Give the backbone structure.
Amino acid sequence: MNVDTTVGGVELAVLSRLTHSTQRRRPRMAGPEPTPRLIAITGGSGAGKSWLADRLQRTFGNDSARLSLDNFYRDLSLMSPEERGKVNFDDPGSIDWPCVEHVLNDCRTCRPTRVPSYDFATHTRLSRGEWWQPKPLIFVDGLWLLHSAAMRSLFDLKIFVDCTTDLRLQRRVARDVLERGRTEASVRRQFAETVAPMHDRHVAPEAHWADIILKEPFREKDVYQLADQVWTLLTAAVRGNDTLRSAFQTELWAALKPQEPL
């Protein structure tokens, strides 16, 4: 999908891509920046949270940004490699939650904030983090975003991605071997010993708090529901434009629908 990053408001970006009419674009209105809206995308390891966040960000272009809970694992640099290997990274306690809440609260007030960077090969934080400027729409993906009431209160929309265990394991193996320097045997062992049990204990119950549950493969009616809620959240000024709302639903479904086999 080609993303137009030059248009101001979200609804204008969608409309300009749908009509291919650059003549109708107009600059961003003067005045204070809009209050950022935060959307949580949660679900099991390998469920497709990052993929969904990426597709949604592409749809909204320059008016959106992404954050990942993966950046906020605790820094274990003071522990030996042997000690780090014994840490259960599939437990919510492995996350630096005060740092997460600080960053998200900065986002809600449109303040620049520092987002840490994490090295999964060594289980250490790479730096104090880079300065990050919030956008009007922020997609946040992670395993335990709805785990506590304090975290749930920070989000304007909460999405849970539901996926089968077999598919999640397949994706986890592919990701960790390629991106995190793991062996396939170690990934499968960790999945059986900690990932699956911790999913049942901490992740699966989060579906109760979700505004939308998306089952993989995504169904058209579920994506249309997602599009409708995001649209309502962001574009109160054009809420009565049913034609534009319908066009946005169609575009989002085109971005998220399962691909036909070649």
